[in-house]
Amino acid sequence: MDLLKVAEQAFANENVAKYPEFKAGDTITVTCKIKEGDKFRLQDFRGVVIQISGATPLTRTFTVRKVSGGVGVERIFPYQSPFIDSITVNKYGKVRRARIFYIRDLAGKKARIKERTFVHKAEAAE
């Protein structure tokens, strides 16, 4: 018996976290629960998604990169982490790659990502 199939069936009944759809190039804000002593507080981590990996929602992770104080900071979040309070998509970026590691080498205006514009289906039909 395939262990992966058994594990997926066991977790299929569990609640899978529902977040808005995002992909590489999008700017998102991840609100995390941070434990300090015996208390929890919420902290925002806003940055650009540089990759999403994992086949199923249970194994999926995404990497968010931001520049803080002139230093690039990357953080990897498991999609099903209990420490993620919410995810908000701030901007939808237009990139041609699924993994935009090249942004690590860019700075200033070169590191900007164009914004995606959407055409609603109802408007396109008219």
Question: Could you walk me through the main structural features you see in this protein, from its secondary elements to its overall organization?
Answer:
The protein has 126 residues and is mainly beta. It has a domain at 25-101: SH3 type barrels (Roll). The protein has helices at 3-12, 121-125; strands at 27-36, 39-53, 61-68, 71-78, 84-91. It has a five-stranded antiparallel sheet with strand order 4-3-2-1-5, with no helix packed on it. A hairpin with a 2-residue loop joins β1 and β2. The chain starts with a helix and ends with a helix. The mean pLDDT is 86.
Question: In this structure, how is the largest beta sheet organized?
Answer: 5 strands, antiparallel
Strand content: 35-45%
According to CATH, the fold-level topology of the domain at 25-101 is: SH3 type barrels
**Whole-number radius of gyration?**
17 Å
Chain-wise SSE layout:
Elements: H1 3-12, E1 27-36, E2 39-53, E3 61-68, E4 71-78, E5 84-91, H2 121-125
Antiparallel strand pairs: 1-2, 1-5, 2-3, 3-4
Concise overview:
With 126 residues, this protein is mainly β. The protein is 12% helix and 39% strand. It has a domain at 25-101: SH3 type barrels, CATH 2.30.30.790.
